[in-house]
Amino acid sequence: YTPMEFVTWSLMEFFNRTEVDAQSLTLQVHKGGAASAGIEDYQIAEQKIWEVLTAARENEFPLQVTGEKE
Length: 70
Fold this sequence. Notes:
The protein is mainly α. Helix content is 61%, strand content 0%. It contains 3 helices and no strands. The chain has helices at residues 4-15, 19-32, 42-58. The mean pLDDT is 95.
């Protein structure tokens, strides 16, 4: 499982969310299973997804991050 603190940190670090906003999104993920971290151009979104997944793997967390077309 992925600690909520890591999810909050990831949102702040890679998506420039405030701590309060990141905590709110983390709770959304915890309760509902998913949340939108942001809307980005395709290449930027792909880069952010890669960065988050790399950080999660380095910490051995099974975090799932996906991109979706709007």
